[in-house]
Amino acid sequence: WMHSASAGLEHLLFPELVEGPVTLTNAKAQGVYSHSLAEYCLTACNWFAKDLPRLRRQQAAGKWEPYDVEELRGKTLGVIGYGDIGQACARLAKAFRMRVVALRRPPRERMYSPDQLQELMAASDYVVMATPHTPATDKMVGAAAIAAMRPHSVFINLGRGKCVDEKALIAALQEGRIRGAALDVFETEPLPADSPLWGLDNVLMSPHCADRTKEFQFESLDFFIENMGRFLAGQPLANVCDKRNGY
């Protein structure tokens, strides 16, 4: 048995492990990372809905200029990757009375399938990506999917930067074809100093730390200890990963 304290597996998998008998588990579920990432998702939605950068600019300039803000109520959140993190985002979104649509492989009833990605993008006001990086999700959100987004929509990435065609996303942001993006992950990390993303006013960025809370290491360790108890007792382990599919 091998356990990963992180959610992503892309740096752990190698042929002998994938093909071998060793069971692999990780900390992707049980709320270790999901709730903090879901909070970030809804913070990003409100960042754009309430135009928080405008408030900061007005405060810095000493200007009193009331303006209309948007509600999240009634808006549609599209979730790409309806695992533990995606479902946590959906739960918080529903608390804001948002409508939630989701894409999952394999799809469940009333969900979008991967070949319906452009339909989900077109139906959403906010799109959150919460997929792991695997061969099947590499640049999953490409130029065609981004082009399907509404002009007022926002793209949020909590999964892995390599799941998105970053050049196509940057082009859409620079040209104003979408409203904005909130990115915690990037194709190359740390983000290169010459990346155009640094200078875009319609991008909220964080250095892959949206889930780095003071609790997550303790929660991850607690989960490992619980799983160790199952292992020693000969019971089925929780969070068993699909090594072939990479999550």
Can I get a quick summary?
By secondary structure, the protein is of the alpha/beta class. The chain has helices spanning 15-19, 34-49, 52-61, 84-95, 117-123, 143-147, 166-174, 216-232, and strands at residues 2-4, 24-26, 76-80, 99-103, 126-129, 154-157, 180-183, 203-205.
Structure overview:
With 247 residues, the protein is an alpha/beta fold. Helices cover 33% and strands 13% of the residues. The protein has 8 helices and 8 strands, in the order βαβααβαβαβαβαββα. The strands form 2 sheets. A 6-stranded parallel beta sheet has the order 4-3-5-6-7-8, sandwiched between helices. A two-stranded parallel sheet has the order 1-2. α6 (143-147) links the parallel β5 and β6. α2 (34-49) packs across α4 (84-95). The protein is globular and about 65 Å long.
Identify the quaternary structure here.
single chain
Element order, helices and strands?
EHEHHEHEHEHEHEEH
What is the global morphology? globular
Find the structural class using helix and strand composition. alpha/beta
Order of strands across the main sheet = 4-3-5-6-7-8
Low-confidence parts lasting 5 or more residues at pLDDT below 50?
A: none
